[in-house]
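Possible race condition, two jobs.
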Amino acid sequence: MKKFAVPLLLMMISLLVFVMVSFLLNSRSGIEASTDSSNIDHVRYKVTDEQPYRTSYHFQPPQNWMNAPMYYKGVYHLFYQHNPYAATFGDKIIWAHSVSYDLVNWIHLNNALEPSEPYDINSCWSGSATILPGGKPVILYTGIDHNKHQVQNLAMPKNLSDPFLREWQKHPQNPLITPPNEVEKDEFRDPTTAWHGKDGKWRVIIGAQKGDEGKTILYQSEDFVNWTKNPKPFFATDNTRVIECPDFFPVYINSTNGVDTSVENSSVTHVLKIGYQSNQHDYYFLGKYVSDKENFVPDEKFTGTSKDLRFDYGKFYASKSFFDYAKNRRILWGWVNESDTTQDDIEKGWAGLQTIPRKVWLDKSGKRLVQWPIEEVESLRDTKVSITGKKLEGGSTLEVSGITASQVDVEVLFELPDLESGEWLEDPSHFDPQLLCSKQYASRNGQIGPFGLLALASKDLTEQTAVSFQIYKTPNRYLCLMCSDQSRSSLRQDLDKTTYGTIFDIDPNLKAISLRSLIDKSIIESFGDGGRATITSRVYPLLAIKKDAHLYVFNNGSQSVVISKLNAWSMKQAEIGHEGSIKCA
């Protein structure tokens, strides 16, 4: 594969690694290990292949929660954390490391960072990477020091000629940043990718907490080693507690292309993403950033309600974006945890996975971001079936047969009736999409909708996960409610079956609306209206597994809708394994 040189413009490559949990070495899970404590790399795992909920084309190491890529010399890197000794969060979290040429097939390498010094002896936690002038990648990461304080450290690759960056070394001046007085010493973490201001100084923000206030703090440096704190918080919210996993980057106003992290001019607006550990949701704000004033002014304030913008309205957290200069795009990844029990995780030997990487750009309205699965995932498409021009009367279902419904990529375009026939909504300000979607919403009868897909469904529909739309009209606009209803996803009772929902404006002249779902055994990623709204779900059916899983299109509205075009592809399994065991080119 062609290797891309780093241009003179400083290319910021991002990664964020969130704390991950690995799993108990339990014979029921099929995990085998050698636990030579003198070298953590000796710990090796083998998870049994015949597990109905283990995904086929999403990134999953054998036993981790994981997050975050970067790009260097033609290779994508994913660093992730895990505890190699237990099924719960532990006191020796390390950085594992995998690489890919296409963000789909992955090679596991040896660990990148392990606790070894007083400043990280109790764990190597989250961090981000930046590529310095001359094409040198560096990592800022949070260490848990000997006092259990959270401090920020620097690591560099030992061999820049190795595109896999197999070995890393820690800077002799670590820790570079220690908790300031105005934050809690054990709530100060997750440095972002750095960016260059117009004054030539590097800038980075770090998540923190003081009392019930969550905040991000900005630091500046001329040499990437000596950092000075800005006196004012970069962003703060009351009664939210700690902000973690922040991200900050520009997006073009009039282009779907990505843009380097340091760009600051009239052609871009900026995105600040924050995560709240209290509810494990990622929120983002669009706004104006002026580096010489260290001032970010969001277009909208945080309200703590459904009005706040989120990357994904389902299970999606600790996300991180990076600028992929090879293909001139910004890519976003999110971490998705489990919805079953801790005991289930122990017995199956793993927990957590990554979403499919998503290209992200600013919607033409300028009011939200758009996300779409990267084009590389289409290389896994196999058997295809299509449906065109099929009318769905109210109360009808249609099976999409001929594909492997437990691992499928499906895109459908619905032709809509006149929007004036949508259900009336007098005051949308009191409209809570999460609450409405939680009332077994897909089974009720509306006017235009609910209509959509029944994913991972049993033949008799006893088990089903409904991903649906319903159209509403208000005094001055039209709205679309998008739901992912897990209430009937499984006959099992010991699961989190939270149902998710969001609502968004639609064009009054809209004639059709699209839905794409990536279904992979226990995860459903859904993209509504071309990616203007996204919902990710985890489900664990008892009946609808492997060859007994089915996929349906449905319409429960009184108005008919038409399947203008539906394409569904069975998905092949991605190649994910240790170095030497697979060819990932």
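Job #2 (started ~2 s after job #1):
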Amino acid sequence: MENIMTTLKELKKLFFSLKIRRKKSERNNNTTTIHLHGSNGFYIGLKLILWRKRRRVFSFISAISSCLLLLLFSSVYFPPPTANNLFLSRHSSVRHVTLSLSFFFLIHVVFVILLAELRQVVKGREALEYNFEAMFQVPASGGNLGRDLWSWSQSTFYYGCSNASKKFQTADIKTLPDRYLLIATSGGLNQQRTGIIDAVVAAYMLNATLVIPRLDQQSYWKDTSCFAEIFDVNWFISYLSRDVEIIKELPPKGGKAWIPRTIRVPRKCDPTCYETRVLPVLNRTQAVELTKFDYRLSNRLDTELQKLRCRVNYHALRFTDPILKMGKLLVERMKMKAKHFIALHLRFEPDMLAFSGCYYGGGDKERAELGAIRKRWKTLHASNPEKVRRNGKCPLTPEEVGLMLRALGFGSDVHVYVASGDVYGGEESLAPLKGLFPNFHSKQTIATKEELAQFSSFSGRMAALDYIVCDETDVFVANNNGNMARMLAGRRRYFGHKPAIRPNAKKLYKLFLDRNNMTWEEFSSRVRTYQIGFMGEPNEMKPGKGEFHENPDSCLCQAKGIETFEEKNRKDAVKMSDEYQSIEDPDWIDVDYLYKIEEFMSD
């Protein structure tokens, strides 16, 4: 009996599952998830589920049949005990047997019909069963979406505009003598880039001369590169000469080396904060060094200071000639392979997964490996992987990135350049992505070891090469919202709104979980809907929304008299974009994780 009750519960679950799936299909204006339309859809769907669970159903039927046979034989050989005389006993027994046989016959007919239906499913529905198993079949083609995948039709109506206005005071008027600001940056290349940009603005606010920032050589990758080995220092000084006075070294004081006073300002420190915390010290000592300088300046500043940020980021910070030459060579080789290509910042390295507290189904081995890495950050609390992923704070797996791109219209013939460190899981993790996009490239596959030799020992210089390719690509795809992703998204907006895709991970998470219960057409349609506001289109983000480096709205101008967006589409894009929650990302080339987290906690 216990087995029968268990089987009955299983059948109840099956019917409930079918009911839920039917409601979901109706809600999404679809019929069943197997492309069956009309009044018989429910009936055929039921038969398919019964076929999928046929072993349990057969067990159930066998159990019920056995019970009925047992009941029949008990009725025949053990007559009712209440019969007191022979006539009544015989009469009652005959009637009891007749009723039992009738009941058994009816039940047997029902089960025979059900068995016949199941056999029909076995014999006549193999093709339908195959469709059920294979309904989520990823096509090789991206399909015809009726739009250009590689550019936005409205992008030509926007342009970057960061020139200073007439009211902006120039360096020769504003800079005071014997007042020097030094900066010690923190993290990897793109995190340090934010520090360099904000250092120029801080020097301008403090009326000080800026000494070329000192790059972080103590972070996780121990890159010993100095500013002049990554950026063109002479160009940097020359381009900003009208904005801020910049020198390469702090001059000696009284013929002796000058040791500046070190200060660490809070994160997101606004101009008033600098006036109260830094300026008094600078006035007394004449030289101040701001340490671990990343995101130490407010995201919101007045327009003139924001435009200065843009001049530094998009014009003054130029890579050295060897880096530019190699980066352009990589771009040329990609363009020789295909007219258009995607650059993907995959961001699926072990440190990122460990930092985020995500789990990807690797069992105890994965938990042990990522848990050991996570111990680097003593201030991190125990994570809830399910909650983290549900909130959209986990990178997509390589396979999920590939499925998203295919759903967005990119076919298997598209060439993909991957900017990434060592992917967790190695080739096993990459195999599904490579299966979807076999034209798979990286620095190491399109350049020789000899060509990369002068860069390969320096994470910052290798990151600079990826930065150039991701900037020059037709479509940039980021798998998180870390420093590199934000920097490139803002740059691509500034230089013509080139497509920059970032996953709406919060919505896609649920979709990926349920993908085997829907057709590819339904899946791809939902992906395209969820990605509205996450594609790098014009007017996608509200002014002032997000990090300024990602959305440099003060530096974006629109051609006059051009209606660039239908109001409804703009509102939809902004609404979807507002749902996006960025990850505080220890980017593989961007962040000294321990500094970033522990300093954040201490501030």
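DSSP finds 26 helices and twelve strands in the chain.
Logs attached separately.
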